[in-house]
Amino acid sequence: MDPLISVDDLAVRLGDPRLVVLDVRWRLDAPDGRPAFREAHVPGAVFVDLETELAAPPSAAEGRHPLPDSAGLQAAARRWGIGDGDLVVAYDDLGGMSAARAWWLLADAGVDVRLLDGGLAAWRAAGRPVESGDRMPRPGAVVLTPGRLPVVDRVALEPFDGVLLDARAGERYRGDAEPIDPLAGHIPGAVSAPAAGNLGPDGRFLAPDALRRRFEALGVRAGAPVATYCGSGVTAAHEVVALVRAGFTPALYPGSWSQWSNRPGAPVATGPDPR
């Protein structure tokens, strides 16, 4: 199943009582997306705070955005108004880079969830309406059952028996710059695959065949293990969406570089090559 939904398809469904729209605006330079949400959002959307609702508290041992515990995620999903059998659509204003975290968590928990292709920019470019202000939905009663999507931990990556994709920007992969985490470079053996390369110039995901060619050129093969990581496990979910769209079954490394680089003596590679 395609993990995406188009602007037109979402517009047709607006007003359906079994539809829940989540606004997951977050970015490193503006982690609080509430002001932008209050200014303009898709009609009926509910704001989701990535830092507190889609992640557990940060730590050196677990990384900057550990996966939330099941009880906390279920409580949040009910606050957002999600019920069993609802269709959930998540979006942001960052090409899906932050909303993909909500997609991954909910898909992993058995929810029918899609990522809005092109996000808020595509919605507005199509002339669709927006609304302002806050919104408090009626609580839902969804029951989440996490554990449906594959994950890998740090131990499984030493080494990884498959293709490990690094979704960060190339300069961080090479170790030219590291503005956030304690070490610069990448996990030995990982292949550079910046998540921005999953999108076309219009901010929408590339077509499935184009994504498949992209990942095959990086060594990904049908039936062979593939996993992805980024700085803190958020952008890596975007890579998962792209891989799923391309027909692969990827695993996520939730701790990502923020966990890996905080371990004393962690092996690190630098430069453009995997090792």
Total E-strand runs: 9
Estimate the mean pLDDT confidence: 97
Largest β sheet strand count, sense and barrel closure: 5 strands, parallel
End-to-end distance: 35 Å
Per CATH, the architecture of the largest domain is 3-Layer(aba) Sandwich
What does the radius of gyration come to? Answer: 18 Å
What share of residues are in beta strands?
5-15%
In CATH, the homologous superfamily of the largest domain goes by the name Rhodanese-like domain
Uncertain stretches? none
Helix content: 25-40%
List keywords for this structure.
alpha/beta; Oxidized Rhodanese, domain 1; 5-stranded parallel sheet; 275 residues; 10 helices; 9 strands; 4-stranded parallel sheet
Describe the structure.
- This protein has 275 residues and is of the alpha/beta class.
- It has two domains: 4-125, 3-Layer(aba) Sandwich (Oxidized Rhodanese, domain 1); 155-260, 3-Layer(aba) Sandwich (Oxidized Rhodanese, domain 1).
- It is built from ten helices and nine strands.
- It has a five-stranded parallel sheet with strand order 1-5-4-2-3.
- Helix 7 links the parallel strand 6 (163-166) and strand 7 (191-192).
- The model has no long low-confidence stretch (mean pLDDT 97).
